[in-house]
Specification:
single chain, 9-stranded mixed β-sheet, 8-stranded mixed β-sheet, 19 helices
Length: about 675
């Protein structure tokens, strides 16, 4: 497959590893790759080999014991395979690291195992069973991209699915110790290329170590050319020698020569963070930071889950473009992340349900768009698949007249209850208070509260939706308020069931506690939050257009469909001009206008000046109507950046979410910088 139009590798499903199970020298069954004609490990001594080649040669036991950094220790691996190396590293970390230390695992894999094969392979080591079960439970769909798994409170695993060299070239993060693994160079020459070693070097921290089982000449030459010092050390078992070494001074990140404005700010103290806004964006970020040991003050003038996050039931869904673009990549990654995140947060499913989401093609134009999407994005059925009207009807539980796209992992959430749960996370101190202003104070910030008090914080995150650009530092970020009203209908006994969230022009969720929630209206620029009968009528009309047979069945069951009798709720969502969220450091707009003024005359004359930001000030906003799919991933993105960790998205996608992207766009187009306080949105 060729690269996608946005320059990134194709957004697609990956081929599952093809295995056969052969007896090793002990007569035990071990996994063997039919594609590479090589074993993943020997069941007899596979774990001992891992301990010798990767754990000991990287000196991990002593390095873990001595680790006192606030950031996590980062291990990078080229080839996840069965996950044995990572599970052994996790066990070593728990055995040796201080209680306050954290571990971040980054691993690439082009041919991921199927879930059943993964479980079978790891069953060989009963003492790793609990760790293996956590890995298997979160095992992602085989979709290219980054998949973040929270293995426990101190251990995070980022699976980068796709070609190893491509994945490392896109990694936004730096590594302390490398496991240079994979099938042998003679079996898998496509991986052991100069580009791989160069990408490893560029993603290394000063002094990063590596270890590998092979002494092949192509590996020694590639490592040396990339800047690694290598030495031969005793190998394992019948293998006399292997390689280990380190890189003293990694090369500069050349990727920033093209986009210096997106250079991330240098890490700062992160003892106490104030998060302003307790909707899904702010509450998920507060919980993410608190889970890393940061003391968080969460502030909201109303309470958790007010505003656009205050509905009793909302759809966890996305709408992906027919042609691959960064926005679709972010939202699909966000959807898959939210599903794993919710399952880990609420395994009892009191706050959500993975009912599946059916996106109907309401007409020929949408049917054609969906067909193009499926043709250009060969994704696994576990992520999204096309269905005909018969299958759509079966899955929805009601008669459907059109084809559609089905997202089996998606569903619905209780946003108000979810925000309340997150605000009550250990380490989060919620305060009901409005914030009137922000002022730099020493190495941190002083927040002026509406009641006249002040609050000090090392860093601040603004997550106040339509009000996010009311502060002096964020005033030039364009945001548009969008009014939305949902309708709620109490169903009588005997009402027909609805098993899936169904979307078209609006959405309707399966009944919750006997109440059907549907909507929502979409009125840009309207800031009134009063409930309107006319909007109830519009929601009913849209429901009937989408599911006429279902509405007819509701009437036959005696349901009162008078708009005047419906309950509902109206709130404001915030949108950016390009309809992607803002998630990143807040740029110093005046400094950017000076530093990059030359772009207005010649966009190819890129200055080498790194982007200047308001130190320790961040934003998560403009999540619109799909915040349940974007806000939790953006929370991880910001928490990772604040805590100096690898990011859960590829670097180009993190750049796509950067709040300064619009400033650069306008400079390149020779437009006047956004005036202070402007909230209008022009067409992108």
């Amino acid at each position: 497959m060729t690269a996608a139009p946005d320059g990134l590798p194709p957004l697609a499903g990956l081929e599952i590893a093809r295995l056969d199970w052969r007896q090793d020298e002990t007569g035990e069954s071990a996994p063997h790759s039919t594609a590479f004609d090589d074993v993943y490990f020997s069941r007899h001594d596979g774990r001992a080999e891992t301990e010798h080649v990767f754990i000991a040669a990287n000196r991990l036991p002593e390095r873990f014991r001595e680790w006192r950094e606030s950031r996590p220790f980062v291990v990078g691996e080229t080839g996840f395979g069965t996950g044995l190396n990572m599970l052994c590293t996790w066990a070593c970390f728990e055995a040796h690291a201080p209680a306050t230390a954290r571990l971040h695992l980054v691993s690439t894999e082009k041919y991921p195992l199927g879930r059943d094969d993964l479980a079978r392979a790891l069953a060989a080591w009963p003492d790793l069973a609990e760790r293996a079960a956590r890995l298997v439970a979160q095992w992602p769909a085989p979709v290219t991209g980054v998949h973040r798994l929270r293995l426990d409170d101190r251990v995070t695993l980022d699976l980068h699915l796709g070609d190893t060299t491509e994945r490392l070239a896109l990694l936004d993060g730096r590594v302390d110790a490398w496991f240079l693994d994979g099938f042998a160079p003679a079996k898998n020459p496509g991986m052991w290329r100069p580009e791989l070693f160069a990408a490893m070097a560029a993603r290394s921290r000063p002094g990063a170590t590596f270890a590998t089982f092979t002494c092949a000449g192509v590996v020694k030459r590639g490592l040396a050319a990339a800047g690694f010092a290598w030495r031969k050390v005793p190998g394992f078992g019948r293998k006399r020698e292997m390689l280990a070494g380190e890189i003293a001074t990694p090369p500069a990140d050349e990727r920033r020569q093209r986009t210096p404005w997106f250079t991330p700010p240098a890490p700062r103290p992160v003892r106490r963070v104030a998060v302003v806004g307790a909707g899904i964006a702010g509450a998920s970020l507060a919980a993410a930071l608190a889970g890393r040991g940061v003391a968080v003050t969460l502030l909201d003038r109303e309470g958790p889950g007010a505003g656009g996050s205050g509905n009793a039931q909302g759809a966890l869904y996305v709408k992906l473009a027919a042609d691959t673009n960064p926005q679709s990549r972010v939202y699909l990654a966000g959807l898959l992340h939210s599903c794993r995140w919710l399952e880990a947060l609420d395994p009892a499913r009191e706050l959500w349900a993975p009912s599946g989401v059916l996106q109907l093609a309401g007409g020929e134009r949408e049917a054609s768009r969906q067909a193009r999407f499926l043709e250009r994005h060969p994704l696994p059925a576990g992520a999204v698949e096309g269905v005909d009207a018969v299958e759509a009807s079966r899955r929805a539980g009601v008669a459907v007249a059109t084809t559609g796209l089905d997202y089996p992992l998606a569903g619905w959430v209780r946003p108000d209850a979810l925000c309340a749960r997150l605000a009550d996370s250990p380490g989060v101190d919620f305060r009901r208070a409005g914030v009137e202003g922000l002022e730099p104070a020493g190495d941190g910030w002083r927040l002026r509260l509406a009641d006249g008090e002040t609050l000090a914080a090392d860093q601040v995150v603004i997550a106040t939706a339509t009000l996010a650009n009311r502060f002096a530092q964020t005033a030039r970020l364009p945001l548009q308020p969008v009014r939305g009203q949902v309708s709620r209908l109490t169903l009588p006994e005997g009402a027909p069931p609805l098993r899936r969230v169904v979307c078209a022009g609006g959405y309707v969720s399966p009944p919750l506690d006997g109440v059907l929630t549907f909507g929502a209206t979409f009125v840009p620029g309207d800031t009134d939050t009063g409930v309107r009968e006319a909007d109830h009528a519009a929601n009913l009309a849209e429901l009937e257009r989408t599911l006429p047979a279902y509405v007819a069945a509701l009437r036959a069951a005696g349901t009162d469909l008078d708009p005047a009798g419906l309950a509902g709720r109206a709130a404001l969502r915030a949108a950016s001009p390009d309809k992607s969220p803002y998630a990143g450091p807040v740029p110093d707009a005046a400094a950017w206008a000076d530093d990059y003024a030359v772009l207005a005359k010649d966009a190819t004359r890129v200055p080498d000046t790194p982007g200047r930001h308001h130190p320790g000030l961040w934003i998560s906003a403009a999540h619109g109507s799909r915040g349940l799919a974007s806000a939790p991933l953006c929370a991880e993105l910001l928490a990772s950046r604040i805590c100096d960790e690898p990011l859960p998205l590829e670097q180009p996608l993190a750049d796509h979410l950067h709040p300064g992207r619009r400033l650069i766009r306008d400079l390149v187009r020779g437009k006047q910088a956004w005036p202070r306080g402007r909230t209008g949105v022009e067409k992108a």
